[in-house]
Amino acid sequence: MAVLVPYAAARPKTRLSDFLDSPERVSFSRAMLADVVDAVVDSGGNPTVLATEPVELDADATVEVDDRPLSTAVNDRLAAAADDGDDSTAVVMSDLALATPRVLSRFFDADGDLVVAPGRGGGTNALVVRHPEFRVDYHGTSYLDHLRVARDIGASVREFDSMRLSTDIDEPEDLVEVLLHTDGRARDWLLDAGFTVDVRKGRVGVRRER
Amino acid sequence: MAVLVPYAAARPKTRLSDFLDSPERVSFSRAMLADVVDAVVDSGGNPTVLATEPVELDADATVEVDDRPLSTAVNDRLAAAADDGDDSTAVVMSDLALATPRVLSRFFDADGDLVVAPGRGGGTNALVVRHPEFRVDYHGTSYLDHLRVARDIGASVREFDSMRLSTDIDEPEDLVEVLLHTDGRARDWLLDAGFTVDVRKGRVGVRRER
């Protein structure tokens, strides 16, 4: 399956700025992107990174540069795929560090004109699109918006219930999930940067030691 | 399947105190408990609420009062089940407001001497126990602790990947998940209390209007 992996190359992961400086945020976000691309490839998918500027990537994906807003860039590819008669396209966010080949295989194989993996806070972390008229709108509570769009065009919807695909790594408290549940480059990056799991007063977070 | 639903009846959900006063937190936590019990019953499970003090519950479950710490109370029941030769017992937390009969059926049917649904931050939100020697330890990063216990006793482990079971409702930002992804008493409670989904600067949360 053709899999789009959008990547905002400039100033990624600003909400991690209390823990990581700007070059570190770029480096960490690239590690997550490479992990996601690897997982897509290992699940049998064919990834294209849609990047807002050129990126060097140590993983097996085509990189297309498109500096337009996320939804515009994705919708352009969905329209082209529909014109070409492609029957399905997936969109997988580049910060889903917990994605594995196993969960992505199940996700790509799930039935539905639209398969949606919600993120926390009403986001849309991953999509399989099998309806030629479906277009994305990532602004706001995109999960509800995408359900509405599907209903409007008569597309069947499958909600895909996965902790791994629901966990986008945006906030400092998300870093512990990478340490606990993954073994790829993003986890290695955090360990190299001195992060460890920290248990304090029954709450679990991360601590940085250097 | 016998399903234990532990419930801390006194001072529940203290981390919601910025949004809800103490009687409201009790009332909201009871609504979530009733939703979880309903979902267990509708999935074919046989729920027992393990409450730290007597509770009136508008749902179809036995209530057993046990004021000992959570792990002690649960382990006492696991030991009794093993003595009785019961081959499986589940433990499902009472604040999993997003649990549905569908996901619980899949969870109870999953293979493994131990089936674990992790929560965010290294917690253990739900377990199926099919090994007579397994005991819980809910302190700290219980997810890792439970994997280690399973390894030590030679029990096979299945990680159960579910956003719905990973979402325990503890923090104010969790409330939006109840509004977005459920249709039970807990959601009705929040709507009656004036909560709505709030989209601001691209972040999604809740707002309380009265």
From TrEMBL, chains A, B:
Question: In the UniProt record, does the keyword Transferase occur?
Answer: yes
Name the Gene Ontology biological process terms. F420-0 metabolic process
Residues in the signal sequence: none
Q: Per its UniProt record, what Pfam families does this chain match?
A: CofC
GO MF entries: GTP binding; phospholactate guanylyltransferase activity
> InterPro entries, per this entry?
CofC, Nucleotide-diphossugar_trans
Q: Which UniProt keywords apply?
A: GTP-binding, Nucleotide-binding, Nucleotidyltransferase, Transferase
Q: What is its EC number?
A: 2.7.7.68
Q: In which pathway does it act?
A: Cofactor biosynthesis; coenzyme F420 biosynthesis
Reaction(s) catalysed by this chain, per the record, are: (2S)-2-phospholactate + GTP + H(+) = (2S)-lactyl-2-diphospho-5'-guanosine + diphosphate
Its assembly, as annotated, is: Homodimer.
Entry function: Guanylyltransferase that catalyzes the activation of (2S)-2-phospholactate (2-PL) as (2S)-lactyl-2-diphospho-5'-guanosine, via the condensation of 2-PL with GTP. It is involved in the biosynthesis of coenzyme F420, a hydride carrier cofactor.
By its UniProt entry, which HAMAP family does this protein fall under?
CofC
Its family remark reads: Belongs to the CofC family.
What is the protein name stated in its UniProt record?
2-phospho-L-lactate guanylyltransferase
